[in-house]
UniProtKB/TrEMBL annotation:
Keyword Membrane: yes
Gene Ontology CC annotation, any one: outer membrane
Compartments (UniProt record): Membrane
Short name of one Pfam family: Omp85
Name this protein carries in UniProt: Outer membrane protein/protective antigen OMA87
Lineage, opening ranks: Bacteria, Pseudomonadati, Bacteroidota, Cytophagia, Cytophagales
Ranges of residues in domain Bacterial surface antigen (D15): 45-236
Top-rank lineage group of the source organism: Bacteria
Coiled-coil intervals: none
Matching InterPro entries: Bac_surfAg_D15 (IPR000184)
Keyword set, alphabetical order: Membrane
Amino acid sequence: MASVQLQSRQAGGLLLGLEYQFKDARLLDAARGPNLASFRLHKWGLRAEWSRLDSRLFPRQGYRLEGGVLAGPKQITAVPDGSPVSTGKSLQLSAEWAAERYWRLAPRTTLVLQTQAAFLQDERLFLPDLYRLGGLQSIRGFREQSLFASRYGLLQAEVRQQFGNSSFLFLFYDQGWLHYRLPDTRYEDWPAGLGSGLSLQTSAGLFSLVYALGRQQHQPLSLRSSQVHFGYTSRF
């Protein structure tokens, strides 16, 4: 998916923006099943963010709220042979919400609570439409983008212990709810992840290392299914 945003910062920590998204999904030659299709999707919408943080890069006190709504037409151009779904048009609507709250518990200890929620509304949803979660930026303890949802909620709790100016160790728990309904599949799950990690500030950027265990349907907590996540954010 390609995305373009135009943003304008307002007084009082408010950020307003316009967004355009484009997705071009194409069937592989061997693709089969009613949950797949080729389509082109264009969506336009609005985004807003309101932030009251003591530091935008390394916050320890305050909150941030963010939300967006997008809508646009989807042109279904091809479906697999034998699929009960036909080509044609549909309208897709999406909405997303996120919030963060930071509390300074001690001079070098911070509690962080984060929540996310999103949904897709489309009478003709396919697997390539869905949100993809899992990994360092969403539900830790799962492979990157290995979880699918048309609607989801996520709550994360994290305790950080700072050392140095902007580096910290942390313990966390992530709890999610995932749901989707496709032409021949309905899915709902409550995946969770827990673990610990390190965020280390260097002269070139922020390096993150996380060890996590994940639990979902048919996968209990187990060291065999543990995940190690790496992340790096460059500093400009």
